[in-house]
Protein 1
Amino acid sequence: MIVRTTEEITGTERDVADKDWRSKRIILAGDGVGFSFHETTINANSVSEFHYRHHVEAVWVVEGSGTLTDLETGRDYPLRAGTMYLLDGHERHRVVCDDQLRMLCVFNPPVTGNEVHDETGSYPKAV
């Protein structure tokens, strides 16, 4: 059994931040369960682009508001508490954050915790 709190993760190597977002990586590949689980916050009044070419990501919005844009189709989706989106087609996407978003995210395959977004907004292929 694994039990962790976001409080104990804060300020550790599992607490990864960029200028516009922060990811508290609660479950990682090293935990050996086949997925990773994160609490991610995106700052208000920010725009972030991502493209997970090697991972499927499910996202559950628990706080805040913004807009998700599928950059493959140009379609916009409102984001607010209770919204879920699944990037099952490795879609390039943009998140425009109006009010700080707090989201719970699952990645498959799991991330190791050391990944950084490359120039395309993607994480490297899991090894």
Protein 2
Amino acid sequence: MELSDIRRDYTKGGLRRHDLPAQPEILFDQWLKQAIEAQLTDPTAMTVATVDADGQPFQRIVLLKHFDEKGFVFYTNLGSRKAMQLADNAKISLHFPWHPLERQVHITGTAQKLSARDVLTYFSSRPKESQLAAWASRQSSRLSARQALESKFMELKQKYAKGEVPVPTFWGGYRVTVSSMEFWQGGAHRLHDRFLFTRQADTPSTWDIERLAP
């Protein structure tokens, strides 16, 4: 089969202007809840795109851990490639691919580091194995073999067998302040519905809404 022959029609319904709330996070909340109710695999998974000093884009999958009108939150190793790139260029793009629902959400914005208090609160809520993994992995650094990673994990597991795991100094999180949010709903005959919310610079609580051609 040729790749160019792989296609399907989109039939789950459209998105109309009268369906849109004034604030995009309200619609995002509705769509995320529906993705969870539909039991999609990893409904909070999002592609995070950053750019290095040479302008080369990079993407990876990260889990959304919180969102509200202030922004979208995720956590990571502060020595990772994404964190190093955000230190030079805080502009960021997020993408949620809810294909079974024939929906996508694309977000642009600026990433800011979370406070130490926020990081501690979330890190303390993680399973102990996840806490240990944060210590064991120097994210994005080169490994000689997987055994080195597993050995470090087991060493830490024994070290903190009877005590609490402290927050690594190299671990933290980001809040993405949204500049724009686009909602994509698949439509029949490739006549998809796309609406772009753009935050007004002079009144940040107000959004311009435009329909985009598919």
Protein 3
Amino acid sequence: MTSYEAAGVDIAAGERAVELMKSRVARARRPEVVDDASGFAGLFDASAFLKYRRPLLATSTDGVGTKVDLARRLGIYDTVGHDLVGMVIDDLAVCGAEPLFMTDYIACGKVVPERIADIVGGIADACALAGCALVGGETAEHPGLLEPDEFDIAGAGTGVVEADELLGAERVRAGDAVIAMASSGIHSNGYSLVRHILATTELTLEATVSDLSRPLGEELLTPTRIYAQDCLALTRTGAVRAFSHITGGGLTANLARSLPNTVDAVLSRSSWEVPSLFQVLESYGKVPQAEMDKTFNLGVGMVAIVAPEAADEALKLLNARGVTAWTLGEIIEGTGQATFA
């Protein structure tokens, strides 16, 4: 007999996944969230914007990329949700926006309720850390297009910022200080190169390397650090000129996006020690320094450009919040480039 289930779509499994994730999603709320009994849309009370003089809505969308393949191979599904929120919400933080809400999309070959609940639960937990609500999402079963154990995730987020408090390149001046915030690891960029190294060297996900405290696979799945609330706290001091989220393209390429064409950022490699995980990948994969620079964050996940007289206080604030931070460099007159000294 021909049926939807015979074609590979299990509606009952999808309903079971929703039930399993409900309690964790409930923790990712804000007071402005309005329940929609139909479940077709997420609702957010826009009267919250009345307190703004001129509110600007900021939006961002992203995915986790090929890191999901490592999660699949290791059978660990709750960390990639943190990666998704970090990639989406920390982009909003760059312009000074407060994150409000997020939605997610999961495509899979077969709905395994426990696996989907772990993924969405991780997204919800990370939304709570970021201070935003998870107001909706979609899980789509794609039999025949994806293998039963394959999946991919994506999401979109919305934030708000006062128009005259918008951060960006136009605020940056020569003499400003460049402050680095440590990453938790590779975050969610460069995993195609990581997978290539795994496929062409003796390294395996189960490998125990002397420079690492955990098996390589566990190190590689370390979730992306979420900086949104730390950036907001720093923004409230009034000292921030601009932020740069260090994602694909590496430190210099991303930082250059936050500079006007009248200045350069000069960075000091000696200001920090690149974490061991990056050194392992560079050594085993024989990856040139230039390739490392443009592929990975090398231990710097977010950068703040601040007024020079506020640099010390900014470092104190970040370190008090548990964020390892240091002076990475300075802004000088130039042409909009970021380079290592």
